[in-house]
């Protein structure tokens, strides 16, 4: 199994920035790609960005590229989500997830393991 722990969420004013972290432990050798998702109250979980662990190739969801940037630290088994120019509509719980497939996916049901999520609240 893979355990994922997100951190870095919080309350920020519109226009501000946050960096989320997702630390993986356990059977990390099985991780082939990582995704960040978010879920706002009353809405479906939404794909933000995916990253292929082997070469760092990234795939951004619609309208996510430009303000959000994913990166990784292989030595720490940690993936980051840098979020800039935040807007109130970015308010959501942000989750990271992993899958044992190199093909990046935006579908929630294609991921094997999920973290507990971290709350991001952007005030206007």
Can you put this structure into words, describing what you see?
- This protein is mainly beta.
- 0% of the residues lie in helices and 52% in strands.
- It has no helices and 11 strands.
- The chain has strands spanning 2-7, 10-13, 18-26, 33-39, 46-52, 58-60, 68-73, 78-83, 92-99, 113-114, 118-123.
- The strands form 2 sheets. Strands 2, 4, 5, 6, 9, 10 and 11 form a 7-stranded mixed β-sheet that branches. The protein has a 4-stranded antiparallel β-sheet with strand order 1-3-8-7, with no helix packed on it.
- Strand 7 and strand 8 (78-83) form a beta hairpin.
List the helices and strands and how they pair.
Layout: E1 2-7, E2 10-13, E3 18-26, E4 33-39, E5 46-52, E6 58-60, E7 68-73, E8 78-83, E9 92-99, E10 113-114, E11 118-123
Parallel strand pairs: 2-11
Antiparallel strand pairs: 1-3, 3-8, 4-5, 4-9, 5-6, 7-8, 9-10, 9-11
- Uncertain spans, ≥5 residues at pLDDT below 50? none
**Order of SSEs, N→C?**
EEEEEEEEEEE
Helix content: under 10%
**Overall radius of gyration:** 13 Å
| Average pLDDT number | 96
The total strand number stands at: 11
**Main β-sheet, in a few words?**
7 strands, mixed
For this entry, give a set of tags:
11 strands, globular, mainly beta, 124 residues
Summarize the structure.
This protein is mostly beta strands and 124 residues long. It has strands spanning 2-7, 10-13, 18-26, 33-39, 46-52, 58-60, 68-73, 78-83, 92-99, 113-114, 118-123.
